[in-house]
Structure formats: structure tokens, C-alpha cells
Amino acid sequence: MKALIVNNYSEEWRVERLYREVEKLSKADLVKYSSLVYTDWRDYDVIILSGSQADLVQGRNLVRFRRELELVREAEVPVLGICFGHQLIGRAFGSGLKRADKFYRGFYRARIVKEDAILSGLGKEAWFYESHGWVLEPLAEALEVLAEGDGYRVECIKHRERPIYGIQAHPERYDRSHPEGATILRNFLALGKDF
Questions:
Q1: Paired strand residues for 98
Q2: How many helices (H) and strands (E) does the chain have?
Q3: pLDDT tens digits along 136-146
Q4: Active site residues
Q5: pLDDT of residue 42
Q6: Which of 8, 72, 85, 194 is spaced 20 to 30 A from 32 at the CA atom?
Q7: Which pairing describes strands 27-32 and 46-49: parallel, antiparallel, or unpaired?
Q8: pLDDT tens-digit series, residues 18-30
């Protein structure tokens, strides 16, 4: 199995932890978002979209990440968007973005509201590492909420007809007291094997 990780950060070091975590479970290629023009994503079993310090409220950023928005709409393999990648998936299908009531940084509790393979083994609540100031709202009709955040509604989403997922948190950032992020990554990569 092979994963494509799209780096949406300006600096590559910001995505190294995600790359290491995925590499524990699968072969992975790391590609800068601006290089997607030259990348055939059909060569991969799963696609992961990283976080970013950019926002998708500004029109220029929608243009800057347009190739990735196309990838989300066209992908025929499982896709997981993390933080900014989650917001990018939401925007690709017409969701809105609004500023959160505060900047979330650290571990926060999420409530699982719909069972799904990506959340398998988590129970009714999970703790995820958050680092964001924007949230998806309103959510596009093509997407459904799987988990709600602590203080906002859209923590984890899935496309209603395709294996496209988003999580507002950073599942690559977990620890012994909060191992749920590792479970999300493991479950998502298992989807690629089954797809």
C-alpha cells in the first residue's frame, strides 16, 4: 500500500511528524501542494492532506490551492484531510468557514455522533490535539458530521457517498494519555487496503 501526503505548509519540517507516523504503517510519498500539477494521484491507495497556516476564507488562497480542491473532487481513493486539509475538503464541496470562538491549541474532547470505520475503537468520546482558529460552518449537504468538537459542531466529517474524510484535529499529534489520533491514522490507512 502507498500513501500520498500533500504538504500544505510553507515549511517542510511542519509535516515531518505526519510523514513519520504514516511511514510506520505504509509506504508514503510527500509532495508539496504546488507540485500536484506534476503528480498523478492515481498511483496511490490513499491521499492525506496536511494542515497549513493559510486560511481558505481569502479568495487568493482558494486560487493557490485550486489543484488540491480538484484532487478532492476527483479522487477515486480514500482521502483524509487534517485541520486545513479538513477545511479544504469542506470548501471543495461548498461548506462555509467561520472564525472559531477562540483559538484551540492542545488536547480537547470530541463526541462521536455517528459510527464509522475511521472511528472504530474510539467509543463515544475521544481526545484529539487541536491547533486551529477556523471551523467549517455551514456544512455542505454532501458531507455528514461523524464527531463534534468541544465548542463547535464539525470535528470529523465524511462525504455521504465517497471515502473522503476530514478531521479538524491533528491525529499525528498524540501521546500515551491521548492515543486516539494514532487510531484514526491506523483506521484510515486500513481503508486504503480494503478499497
A1: 135
A2: 5, 9
A3: 999 999 999 99
A4: 83, 170, 172
A5: 83
A6: 194
A7: unpaired
A8: 999 999 999 999 9
Question: Helices 66-74 and 84-92, interaxial angle, to 10°?
Answer: 70
Q: For position 63, what pLDDT does the model report?
A: 93
Domains detected in the chain: 2-194 (3.40.50.880)
Q: Name the residue among 153, 147, 189 with its Cα closest to residue 25.
A: 189
- Does 78 have pLDDT greater than 90? yes
Rounded CA separation 96/94 (Å):
7
Rg (the chain; Cα; Å): 15
User: Residue 39: its pLDDT value, please?
Assistant: 79
Least Cα distance to 7 among 34, 45, 41 occurs for: 34
Distance CA 180, CA 128 (A): 7
Alpha-carbon distance 126 to 43, whole Å?
A: 33
State the Cα–Cα distance between residues 60 and 79, nearest whole angstrom: 24
Q: Which three cell numbers stand for residue 98?
A: 467561520
**124-138 per-position pLDDT tens digit:** 999 999 999 999 999
Paired sense of beta strands 79-82 and 46-49, if any: parallel
